[in-house]
Structures are given as C-alpha cells and as structure tokens.
User: Fold this.
Amino acid sequence: MVAPHSSVKPSSIIAYFSMEVGLSPEIPTYSGGLGMLAGDTLRAAADMNIPMVGITLLHRKGYFLQRLDAGGNQIEADARWVPEEMLQPLEPRVQVIVGGKTVSVRAWQYTIRGVKGHMVPVYLLDTNLPENDGYSRTLTDHLYGGDLRYRLCQEVILGLGGVAVLRAMGHNDVLAYHMNEGHSALLTLALLEEQSKANQDRNICDDDKEAVRRKCVFTTHTPVPAGHDVFSLELAREIVGGKRLDTLLCTECCLDQTLNMTNLALSLSRYINGVAMYHGEISRTMYPNYPINSITNGVHSATWTSKPFQDLYDRHMPEWRRDNLYLRYAVSVPLDEIRQAHAVAKKDMLDEIQRRTGIALDPSVMTIGFARRATAYKRADLLFSDMERLKNIVSRAGPLQVIFGGKAHPRDDGGKEIIKRVFESSGALKEVLPVVYLEEYDMGLGKILCSGVDLWLNTPQKPHEASGTSGMKAALNGVPSFSVPDGWWIEGHVEGITGWSIGDSWGLNSTSAGESESLYDKLEQVIIPMFYRQPGLFARVMRSAIGLNGSFFNAQRMVSQYLENAYLTG
Ligand SMILES: *Cc1c(COP(=O)(O)O)cnc(C)c1O
Assistant:
C-alpha cells in the first residue's frame, strides 16, 4: 500500500469524533457496529502512522450488561469497569455551558499502538468531577441511556467539550474534523464560534461557515429517517443556549423547527459519505441537495482474525499485518491448512460456549452463526419463519446447529420481542436442531463467533443495513457469508465463491416471504450438501472469502480511502 501518511504534516492531526468507540473487550464504551468501526478506524490509523486523535465520552456505566431469563426476557444492569485502572488521567479541565450551567470536563487517555509503534491517543471525556452538580456528573455515564435531554447534553459535551479538550491538549492545527455519525455535529458550533472570534465578527457570516465547512468531514450511517437525532428548538434553546441556537439557526440545520444533527453535519462538511456503495446511493435520495460519496467500511484485520488464522497468515504472508493487501495471496494457502485452522477456531468457540452455558455442541455439525444488535430490521427470526420446512431440511440435507447473540437497546421493544421469538423457536426445535442464544454479545464474543462458525448468516431488511461489518470479520477467518444483498454484501458477494446471497436482487422489491424461500432453498440444495459432501469445494469458498473479501473489506483500505478522498482534499 502507498504511504499516504507522509503527506500529512506531523504537527497537524485528524480529529476523529464518535459517540461510541470499541477500544478493547474490557472497556464497554460501545454498543455495536458504529463503535467497532470507530475503534477499527483508529487502530488502522495507528498502523498507518497517521496523526489521528480520537474523541469520545467515558461512559462510566457503559452501555449495559445483558442477562436473559429462561423465557428470553432481557434483564439489564450497569456495565462495570474502572476507568482509573485502564486509562491515563489528563491534567486539563475545560468548561462547557450545558443547560445554563457551567460544566467542568476532564479527559482520560487510551493509547493505541500501531504495528510500527506509532501512537494514536483517544480522549474519553468525563464530567464526574466534584465541582459539578449531581446531574452534570452523570452526563458521561450511560451510552445511549436517558431521555432526549440527557442525549442532547451528552452531544454538547462531545462536540463543544471535545473541541475545547483538543485545544487544551495543544491541538490547534487540525487537518480535518471527522464526525462519525451526527452525534458530534455540535463541534461545528465550536468551530463557528472560534472563526467569528478570530474575525472579531459580531455575527456569524457566510465566510465563517465556509471556513468551518472546509475543515469538516461527515460519515452518515443511517439509511432511514427515524434513525437520526432530532431535538425540538425549545429543548435546544434550553440546553445549548439562546445565543448559540441563533448561531445554529443561520446554518441550514433547523428546518422544520427542529435541531437536526444530520442536517447540521451535512451543511457544514466539505466531504460527506455513506458507508457502502449502495448506502451512498440511498443517502443521495434522502439528501438530494448534498454531494454524498461512498467509502465502504472495513474491519481491523489483526483485531478480528483468530489466533489460528493469524498463525496461518504469519507463515504464508508474513507482511499481512502491515499491508492487508497481501491477504489476496491466500490463494496460495493449501486448502487443508485453511480447514485445520478453522477446526481449531471452531473448537475454541465450542469450548467457550460450553464454559458459558454447559451446552456441548458437536464439532462435526455444520454451525450457523447470527450475532448483532437485536433490533427489528435485522430479523434474527427469519430462519424460523417456516419451522416445518426447516425441520425437513435438517432431516434431508444434513444436521445443523445455530448460535445467536445480541443485545436489544433497553427501549427497543421490537428487538426484545425478537430475542424471545428465537428462544421460543429454540424450544420448539429442541429435538431436531440445537439453537443457543448467548448472553452479553460483545467485542470478545463477536470475534469468537465470527471465526468459529461455518457460515455467517445475515438477514437485514433492505435497505436498513447501511454496511454491516460482522460478515467482514467472518471473511477474515475464512467463514463465508449467507446474506441478504444489502450494505457491504452487494459489493462482497460472488455467488458460490465468497458465500451466497439470500434473494437475488439488491433492489428494494423483494419480500420477506421471497427471502425466506431463497434462504431455505439454498441451504437445502446448495450449502448444506456442499458442506457435508464436497468439503473440498466448501474449503475453496472459505479461501476465496479471505483472498477476495479479507483483502479489501479491511480498515486499512478504508482509512487510505478517507485520506485520499476526504482528509487530504481540504
Ligand atoms: C462487529 C460487531 C457489530 C456489528 O455487526 P453487524 O453484523 O455489522 O451489525 C456489532 N456488535 C459487535 C460486538 C461487533 O463486534
């Protein structure tokens, strides 16, 4: 890979803002794919010697801990971790006005060390300080917890507090402010104020807006309007402040008498992108007035590759950690070695499942994995839409076992319903097909499942899956995907080569019934027969998943595209 980092002055940085970041399995500051992407971006930047700095909130109580009772009801508790044991405290305190009160903010640092030793610091903002009042002290506790007021207060801390912390840490020369989703869009307000102060303006003018626009990059992740952060102007006036809201009113963010974080970020960014080819297209139809590009997500390969596959790659293409493009040379790896590495990863996963649940699954049985946030559009229960058909398939084509994982947001009743339906189906299939739902799906379990199963199932309702990344993790471990063609799979899918598609068209006109039909047909006629009767052919698909998809859908390729298209074009 070229060395684009040489064109970024070391004194200037790229400031990467994200409400959630997946830093390590012990640090519960993420809820799902968005946070994983942020962590993988920062890890790749460290590997590539890019002067990037991450900014997020501390989330002292994490997202939440998930327990599931015998009926599949989700029980939630605060996640527990001790930031003081894992992070370095930073000296500076900055002040932010939130809801008319001055709130003091400090930051903790987590340092990511790249393959060549380059360090990327991540600042986690914390308001739990003795000088703050009770409510203000809780503002950096819960990721996606609380009501709209709490959320808006958090976004003030992230955006305005984040820029203030950057300045306090001496980062004045910023090549690009990258907003990973709209939660951090208030950083534009901090930049507008700096701009007008520098020009001794009374009011923000078009030149100020243009100057801010030239510094900002925005990645949108949500292909449906309901997913975007919107606050009433009354609430915004109260929390952000009247004068500041007036500043925002002169941008185009306050259409329909609301403060819309997506519109704010769109109108103040020089570069905007969706997270896969098709998601870019969908976003352009949602926001026809903005030039929206696509940069397809990728995952950090060393983080998501299991130990047996790391060893395999180290033997056959020792440069793969430094340069992920070498994964393309997987074509030279003997199929037997791929099979052996996978057998070890599968055994490690089954041992872990037995340790957690007491359930001993059979290593010789084809194992399907499905794990991701439990929410309606992901349709974890599509596999169970025709139970008789599923039973017939297993008796005719060969045995299956299925492993599930995933948390529902505490206020997502639809997501909770889905978990219960999987539990019910599991009970109904007891004698025929073991179905296990694992609690507490997180970064660590994600890696174990993506690398240990034989087939990674993904059944989103189009076009809700902006990208999806767990199938990319699976590909790095030689696990083929079986997925609805949405998000990244539209680009990653080559039928019978990198995996299989559920339904054939990526247009929006397919139905759930048609998709479950296709799911059953291909399982019965193509995938299960190949797994049991043509293992050599199946191993070829595993190998192509690595060579074709592992070599492209990684964070190194993604970050080099951000550099080329977004960061270095200011
Ligand atoms: C990778 C990952 C995700 C994203 O999975 P998708 O299938 O892309 O939704 C979510 N949660 C965890 C813990 C992950 O590791």
Observations:
- The domain at 7-226+268-298 is CATH 3.40.50.2000 (Rossmann fold).
- Residues 32-33, 36, 372-373, 441-443, 446, 468-470, 473 surround pyridoxal-5'-phosphate (CB under 6 Å).
- The mean pLDDT is 95.
